[in-house]
Amino acid sequence: MMARKQKIAIFTTASLPWMTGTAVNPLFRAAYLAKDGARDVVLVIPWLSEKDQELVYPNKIVFTSPSQQENFVRQWLEERINFASNFSIRFYPGKFAIDKRSILPVGDITEIIPVEEAEIAVLEEPEHLTWYHHGQRWKTKFQRVIGVVHTNYLEYVRREKNGVVQAFLLKHVNNWVIYITCHKVIRLSGATQDLHRSIICNVHGVNPKFLEVGLVKRDQQQRHEPAFTKGAYYIGKMVWSKGYKELLQLLSKNQNELSGLEVDLYGNGEDSDEVRQSASKLKLAVRVHAGRDHADPLFHDYKVFINPSTTDVVCTTTAEALAMGKIVICANHPSNDFFKRFPNCHMYNNSKEFVELTQRALTEEPVSLTDEQRHQLSWESATERFVQAAELDLFMPEKTLPSPSPFMSLSYTDLSKTVEDTSAFLHNTISGIEVARRAFGAIPKSLQPDEQMCKELGLAGKI
């Protein structure tokens, strides 16, 4: 008899061609979870109106239908993996919140998965997906709900006006919605807030193309050929909060000690002009370029990747640089703990150490990664860690059990569940009131998708 397949639905908050972590990493997760054929995997991604697509997607890319966008996503993936992608893709209605620079769900997106398929749900950014969720409770629809926390929202909010107060409120809101939504929470690093039922485990890998570049560089080093002919660089979305502020401050403070250093910065973003102006004021040669794909051959020959960002939970570009065999200079911060195991990752605690490590990196050769170290950076290893952290191999579909007698005394577990159910009822009530939703920052009229979006998604009615 054939073994029964687990049914896994992965919901995420973004999609290609938006090159953000929650578009790329859940896509790879879906592909690798479905690779061995032991699971039926569905990736559920947001569908945006044409107006929102123009705001979000680069290079004026606009899709006229979900199937067109699915073809784009699959082609991008297939160019980066060496096996067939055996998972499904479905879309939920979404709207782009300009103030949050984020896509938010519209309507009850649990309805995208039919009841007979609702077994395990993976919520990539569970707080983001459930802040304004109104409808069927996730734990009612799915037998097991796993949250994967990608973003250090508190750090971003602290940098805004009245940031301390906002961060305090957001911390408790995040705890609340995740508590009533998830059976298990995976935090990618200790840079995220502590959450109920959570563990810390980096369940992300790197695009296999970066590991291929690393192998080429290792072969060049073994043949004693010059593998890295360029100096230092940084790549990331060009906004101050993504490490550019910290990097330019370090360079400005230590211009004399770092005399002769040349650094190339690559990125696009709202603060590009300001970053360019600040860089031009330095005595050092700091060149600012438009953003590119990190896999571009342009980056292969750089030897040193400098990344002072502390807002990322686990920085994808740092992992990619290590996979390519480069030396990485980064802050000694919880977001970088996973990288401490790699010999080419050098961490600084202060400005003086930053200077020393940068100077040394420019004069030494990177250490070639071992096969085991390469595996730890791969999506194969990340998937193994995810299966273990989410306890997927231990999961068994539940059978409906008879309700306990009303005369039986309540146990601590029963009481805890009652409190949780009451809390979930309160959230559902508040999230169904338009005035309350608006007060907490929801997009106006996002309780239900409009007729045009229902038509584009082929929904029989509003969800």
UniProtKB/TrEMBL annotation:
<keyword id="KW-0328">Glycosyltransferase</keyword>
<dbReference type="GO" id="GO:0019375">
    <property type="term" value="P:galactolipid biosynthetic process"/>
</dbReference>
<dbReference type="GO" id="GO:0009707">
    <property type="term" value="C:chloroplast outer membrane"/>
</dbReference>
<keyword id="KW-0808">Transferase</keyword>
<dbReference type="GO" id="GO:0046481">
    <property type="term" value="F:digalactosyldiacylglycerol synthase activity"/>
</dbReference>
<keyword id="KW-0934">Plastid</keyword>
<comment type="similarity">
    <text>Belongs to the glycosyltransferase group 1 family. Glycosyltransferase 4 subfamily.</text>
</comment>
<keyword id="KW-0150">Chloroplast</keyword>
<protein>
    <recommendedName>
        <fullName>Digalactosyldiacylglycerol synthase 2, chloroplastic</fullName>
        <ecNumber>2.4.1.241</ecNumber>
    </recommendedName>
</protein>
<dbReference type="Pfam" id="PF00534">
    <property type="entry name" value="Glycos_transf_1"/>
</dbReference>
<feature type="domain" description="Glycosyl transferase family 1">
    <location>
        <begin position="232"/>
        <end position="336"/>
    </location>
</feature>
<keyword id="KW-0472">Membrane</keyword>
<dbReference type="InterPro" id="IPR001296">
    <property type="entry name" value="Glyco_trans_1"/>
</dbReference>
<dbReference type="InterPro" id="IPR044525">
    <property type="entry name" value="DGDG1/2"/>
</dbReference>
<keyword id="KW-1002">Plastid outer membrane</keyword>
<keyword id="KW-0732">Signal</keyword>
